[in-house]
Amino acid sequence: MSITKASMLDTSALAPAAPWREHDNDSHGHVVQFYSEDRSLIETLGHFIGSALGAGDAAIVVATEAHRQGLAEELKARGVDVSSAIEQGRYVPLDAVETMAQIMLDGWPDETRFANHIGGVISRARLAAEQAKGSNGSLIIEPRVVAFGEMVALLWAEGKHPSAIRLEQLWNDLAKTHSFSLRCAYPMGGFHLQEHSEPFLKICTEHSAVIPGESYTSLKSEADRLRNISQLQQKAQALEAEIEQRKEAQESLRQREIDLRDAEQHAAMGKLAAVIAHEINNPLEVIANVFFMLRDHPSLDESARGLTRIAEEEISRVRHISNQTLAFYRESEKPISVSLNQVLDAVLDIYARPLKLHGIEVEKNYGSEREILAYPVEIRQVFVNLIGNALQAMPNGGLLRVGMHDSSETIQGSRRTGVRVNISDTGVGVPEKCRDRLFEPFVTTKAEKGTGLGLWVSRGIVQKLGGSIRFRSGKIGGKTRTSFSVFIPTGQDALESVS
What is the distance between the alpha carbons of residues 388 and 365, in angstroms, rounded to a whole number? Predict the structure, then answer.
């Protein structure tokens, strides 16, 4: 026996003329029925099982106790002598839970157990039907065997979806050695989640035919069914759109929560920075001046002067940490219009001597003259940090590219226009272990020479302007290249960001 697997219903095709009964008299086939009300299932099973028993054929029902009792009453109402059929062995009602225990092994349908147990039930039922027909003096025609199985629905209800699909496949395998017509059924309410879509399709493809729920099968005319299909398509489209909107809303909420946490962290760090600046900067200035005067004091030998210079450098480093932290937090005047061309040129002038000293070539490409709304000191600090990092990454020379052009970017679900500044170098690159945490405070690639605050401060300044900062680092053409991209909105987008 061969069972052909069915495709899902093509809702763009004409609706069929309600062929739900045509499968009741099949001698083979594997049909699945989806239902909402138990009564609807019992009525269709009554016709399916009753037709077979009324013709002297065999029927096997593997179902829950409630469904077995409901079916027995339905068959009696249709004039079927259920007791006689059971006595003859032509009607075999089995408990789904008990039968499932016979075929499962470690929670999984076992192929050998299934074939032996269910295959044996089918063979015995067929033999009983042959004997009953022979004793009645009927012309011996090979009897049909019809079966209803509810074990798959129980597995699905328990959340064992792969097991349910596997059991469907075992029924198909059994059909290669035994001839029978099988009906499976699932409550439609069990497929209420989006993640059920794929396994639902797999279930349908394991069957030769699909009977939809009664909201569709109860419709009497082709026109009604076509209208129903169109309505279902509209509902599906609306549901997909709503799901997408909810995903976008959830993502926006998640991003806002991240931004809020960042803002709280930045605010706390900013307040700490103000205290550090007040409490540390002034005494550091005094200490720095003392060491400056002490460095050339005639009472010191060359070794002592060397130690004094080291102390000066470390004090300078501490002051640098304090100033970088302070640059993060600002409660001053409103932002003003700033020319990025001038800012970038000014920063390059600051580094002109070390760039020349290290043999670093500078390539500028300013493709935009737009101005931004920003705090001049803060935005200058951003590019001091980025260009300074690039310089330190090329101790043996290289190429520093500084470019700027008009651009746009989607930030928090809003498309913004502005200016993008790209700063790239051919230095040592960013180590893999640091890339995911590069913008976190106190993460540095410079060992003891770095504070780990520059990029964190820079990101905070750029985000406060409604922009973004990101980087790429890797080998291109055998050379290591690192590029930082800073996007800052302009015009109305800038006003909304800094307001």
Answer: 19
The SS3 assignment for 218 reads coil
Tell me the sheet residues that pair with 59: 91, 146
H-state helical runs in 31-95: 38-54, 65-77, 82-88
Give the start-to-end residue ranges of the domains of the chain.
25-218, 220-329, 331-499
Two tokens at 98?
Answer: 């008990």
Q: Which residues of 197-229 are buried (b: 16+ CB within 10 A; e: fewer)?
A: eeebeebbebbbbbbbbbebbebeeeeebeebb
Distances (CA, A) of 471 to 182, 231, 388: 61, 49, 15
Q: State pLDDT tens for residues 304-339.
A: 878 888 887 777 767 766 665 555 555 445 788 889
What's the gap between Cα 497 and its chain centre? Answer: 30
Contact 383, 421 (CB under 8 A): yes
pLDDT digits (tens, 9 = 90+) for 379-438: 888 998 899 999 989 999 999 999 999 999 988 778 889 999 999 999 988 888 878 888
Question: CA-CA distance, 196 to 206, in Å (whole number)?
Answer: 16
Find where tokens 């640098």 sit.
320
Instruction: Indicate the helix (H) or strand (E) that contains 495.
Output: helix 491-498
For the domain bounded by 25-218, which CATH number is listed?
A: 3.40.50.300
| Dihedrals phi, psi of 299, to nearest 5 degrees | -75, -10
* Contact predicate 488/418, CB 8 Å: yes
**CB of 185 within 8 A of CB of 153?**
yes
Pick the closest to residue 329 from 478, 453, 190 (CA basis). Answer: 453
Superfamily of segment(s) 331-499:
Histidine kinase-like ATPase, C-terminal domain (3.30.565.10)
Helix (H, G, I), strand (E, B) or coil at 465: coil
pLDDT band at 245 (very low <50, low <70, confident <90, very high): confident
Which candidate, 136, 55, 147, places its Cα nearest to that of 94?
147
